[in-house]
Amino acid sequence: MSKVKAGGSARNTRDSVGQRLGVKCFGGQKVNAGQVLVRQTGATKIAGNGTYVSKNYTIHAAKAGTVSFKKVKKTRFTGKTQRRTQVCVD
Hints:
Elements: E1 22-23, E2 30-31, E3 36-39, E4 45-47, E5 51-53, E6 59-61, E7 65-75, E8 81-89
Parallel strand pairs: 4-8
Antiparallel strand pairs: 1-3, 2-7, 3-6, 5-6, 7-8
């Protein structure tokens, strides 16, 4: 007779770590060139003056300066306009 209970298979035990997305530098903050401003999935915020977007949609500062955010209207492919937040470094 067995002394140990049969160990079943665990199916739902895997979990991935969070991606740490979001705004890293807020409006009015001083930044250096190349610093990460926003980490995002997809282009929820768009790059403005003094910024650039890397291949995973992260927005970086292209030059040293002060971060600012503003709402702009962006036209989609279908012709519909949509409000987006634009990140700028002045």
